[in-house]
Amino acid sequence: MSTPGADIETLLSRALRPIDPPDGLSRRLEQTLVELTELAVVELEGWELSAMRDPRNWMRPVIALAIGATAGTALVILRVKATQRRRNQLARGPADLAARTARAVAGEARRVVRR
Amino acid sequence: MAAPPRTKAELDDQFAELYRSHLRDVYSYAYYRVGNHHDAEDLTEQTFLQAYRHFERAQAESDGRPLRPWLIRIAHNLAANLYRDRSRRPQTTIDDTSGLSAVHTTEDLVEGRDELARILAGVKELPNDRREALIMRFALGMDNREIARALGKTDGATKVLLHRAIRQLEGIVGDEHTRS
Questions:
Q1: Which of A12, B33, B74, B130 could crosslink B138 through cysteines, CB 3.0-4.6 Å?
Q2: Do A14 and B116 touch (CB under 8 A)?
């Protein structure tokens, strides 16, 4: 043995081996990213240009652009995911959960836009 | 030195690449630090959330160096806050049987379950900085320089820290072996 502690280093390598994240963690994050991007695109496509004359309506397409195009996508995703467990507990069904998630997305996107 | 990103889209792409490359590292560190999968998932998510907030500045200041030590340092600080907030140690420790079986193969467990359990129990007894240095070296495969950056120490101090951690662990495991 050339180095003191070599045996224990071998044991440490076996004991402290890297751990793959649970399938659910990476899958949920990636899925949420895709869903939120699509959600933003749909919202943007469904927007009527005539509504843009009213300044009170300007916030929604700005939010959609912020999510769907570039800025803050990952931040929105991660923040929304961080609160997903609580929404799952509160939701009264799939539709209610979807509505809660959409509201969370809009809220987080507004925060990103204000950064 | 890499050219600074010109658009937010490029920055997001680079962050996504960082996430994909180091998700396993951050999760491994989080698991060995907090001792259970539930808190490790939360810690991993919060680490990447915080990393995203400061990604642009970190990239600018990294001078082209890898960002893994910076990520692990974020996880390290968040884990410290987690314990402070809860005012307690982890409910499930890394030397528990459930933790072992979740991480190691059947072959490992058959061949050396007691030995590995003794090592993990010994790691748990080490002072925080020594335990973390061992996790970074053996679970994440970080070199001295990376560990030094993650812990905010010099390369020399990190080398000494690792050496002392291993020697102390040898002593703990040896004493345990003598008693049993």
A1: A12
A2: yes
